[in-house]
Design goal:
With about 270 residues, the protein is an alpha+beta fold. It has one domain: Jelly Rolls, CATH 2.60.120. The protein has five helices and 13 strands. The protein has helices at about 15-25, 30-35, 45-50, 80-85, 245-270; strands at about 5-10, 25-30, 55-60, 70-75, 95-100, 125-135, 140, 145-155, 155-160, 205-210, 215, 220-225, 230-240. The protein has a nine-stranded mixed sheet. It has a four-stranded antiparallel sheet with strand order 7-12-9-10, with no helix packed on it. The longest helix is centred in the last third of the chain and has 26 residues, at about 245-270. The protein is globular and about 45 Å long.
Length: about 270
């Protein structure tokens, strides 16, 4: 295990971002409620008040399974999900997670309340997502092609982190497959017989409480485990540092090339 640095959120636009990029390591950002006190207003009731009652995609996973990549998506009305989150879901053998709801596409009505985005460089923000789930939600080990500012607004979440240089120990999926960002290793149930190289990986474990944020640099591997209570989070992805890790860039480049070609083909067909 390694210690993780803590920094205070600055109310000066761009200052915290610059400090995080300079450190280029995961760090906990404290003082969110001091600088942005309206973030305290995020809770289940505010979600009910702010979210339009529409169909949303909810991720469902067996409670005995810690690799949430094996789950599946279902559609639920926002009002049904929020009500069942408070009263208890009908199927107690599964965990229901309103995961990775894109604020631009799925929940634009929540964008005005994020607030932290006003302190980050606007031209570098790629996307923002909303997360609301039962206790003990789990997201499998993976990495992202963006720097990540992750705000914990209710409950707590534990992150299991590995640096990009540990890619050789983490058995990543094929760069040419459908999930090149994913690892086969489960840090919550580490199987060293099946994945012996994982014993050489350097794991950092941190727990975010409500009012904390995490800066997670691009290409850092992370699995995320929800605490014993309902959790609510918002994250902001920032672009601009694609080649800060050559190994990370190479891991995701084939998919990026395929997406680029697909986008060009779609534009061609629309024009013709």
């Amino acid at each position: 295990m390694q210690d993780i640095q803590q920094i205070e959120l600055s109310g000066i636009a761009g200052k915290t971002y610059a400090e995080c990029v300079r450190l280029n390591r995961p760090c906990i950002i404290s003082g969110l409620y001091d600088v942005l006190p309206d973030l305290r207003l995020w809770n289940i009731q505010s979600a009910k008040d702010r979210i339009v009652d529409k169909e949303l995609k909810v991720y469902v996973m067996p409670k005995v399974d810690s690799q949430s990549s094996l789950g599946y998506w279902v559609k639920m009305k926002a009002s049904d999900y929020l009500s069942q989150l408070e009263s208890g879901f009908f199927d107690s053998s599964k965990t229901f997670y309103l995961a990775m709801q894109r604020l631009d596409e799925d929940l634009p009505e929540l964008k005005p309340y994020v607030l932290l985005d006003k302190l980050l460089p606007e031209n570098l923000i790629a996307a923002s997502s909303f997360w609301l789930g039962q206790s003990k939600t789990i997201v499998y080990l993976h990495m992202d092609p963006y720097d990540n500012f992750f705000m914990q607004l209710m409950g707590q979440k534990t992150f299991h982190l590995y640096p990009p240089s540990d890619r050789k120990y983490l058995y990543p999926c094929s760069p040419f497959g459908s999930s090149p960002e994913a690892s086969l290793v489960d840090p919550l149930q580490l199987d060293l017989e099946k994945f012996p190289l994982a014993r050489h990986a350097t794991r950092i474990e941190i727990t975010l409480k409500a009012g904390d944020a995490l800066f997670l640099p691009i290409y850092w591997w992370h699995a995320v485990q929800g605490g014993p209570e309902t959790t609510m989070s918002v994250n902001i992805w920032c672009k601009g540092r694609t080649f800060s890790s050559f190994g990370g860039a190479m891991q995701l480049m084939p998919r990026g090339v395929k997406q680029g070609i697909g986008s060009l083909i779609n534009k061609f067909w629309k024009k013709n």
